Amino acid sequence: MKLMNKAAFIALLMTPTLLHADIPQVQIQAVAETAAIKGDADDPAIWVHPTDGAKSLILGTDKTRGLYVFDLEGREVALFEDGKLNNVDIRPFSLNGEAVWIASAAEREHETLVFYVINADGQIAHGAPFAFPGVPAQMADTVKDIYGSALQSDPETGRLFAWVNFKSGDILQYEVTETNGQLDLTYLRRLEVDSQPEGMVTDDKAGHLYVGEEDVAIWRFPSLPDKGDTATLITQIPSDCFPKDDIEGLTIYDGTDAKYLVASSQGIHRAALFPLDGDIIPTCVGLVEIAAGEFDGVTETDGLDVVAAPLGPKFPKGALVMMDDQNAGFSTNFKIMSWADVATALSLK
Description:
By secondary structure, the chain is mostly beta strands. It is built from two helices and 26 strands.
């Protein structure tokens, strides 16, 4: 929903204030928003066009209906009515000798992990096959209620992995392979936390998996299947940037000069930033609130995504997309922010 002009308030909104033990808190505004979703929007993933960043797309799940596709102006491009999809993620892949991208999402009604294929021109189709059981048969009695998911690429080998978690606290890793254009999914291992997780993201270069245990903490695990299963605590509830629950979406900004874990601090309607540097345990360096401007602000964010690639003149340093739970007209949607505004507000590299 459009409100006031952004330019009139940008100087005020870019002024940091302090909250929670001198953690900088800043406000920025959305530069675009997607069309309203009457169902229950949850998680976005940004597909970066290989030759023209301005033609990039936003995939967004609706937990009641399926997968929406939007352009960077927020216009609906496509809708796949594929059921109760939760988290969505994207990675490059080679399919039948062709360079494509794979998007995956957890489908909650049928306890499956579903796959889409994105071509270089932005055309999206169902993978073949489209859906796989989320739980190996031997675990069906104990691993329950599929929830979050993520993808991972190994930069050294090119292997593609899929992660899926469950309300039971289980986290399963699979390998995604293909033969003559047909996808296959092979179970590799199980990790676990004590209570319900959802948001997950992998730092592919560092070999880390970050998991949000919603009411408790963010954990880091080794992401490659032969590197162990030791959990490292990153932050917990309550803490400076998570004074109350939930920990929701997780994403990583991987820029030329810096890398940040970005996490949804849902209870205070903000995104928390953690600088990443190898195996060092990061600490929160800032909180970002999306305030009302030309578009309404962001409240109760579930999922979010960020990319560092330039996406045209509105997004010269990349974009941050956050789910908004209280859009106009009793609807939900996704707000689209310029990472340049985040960097300026928090004086980031």
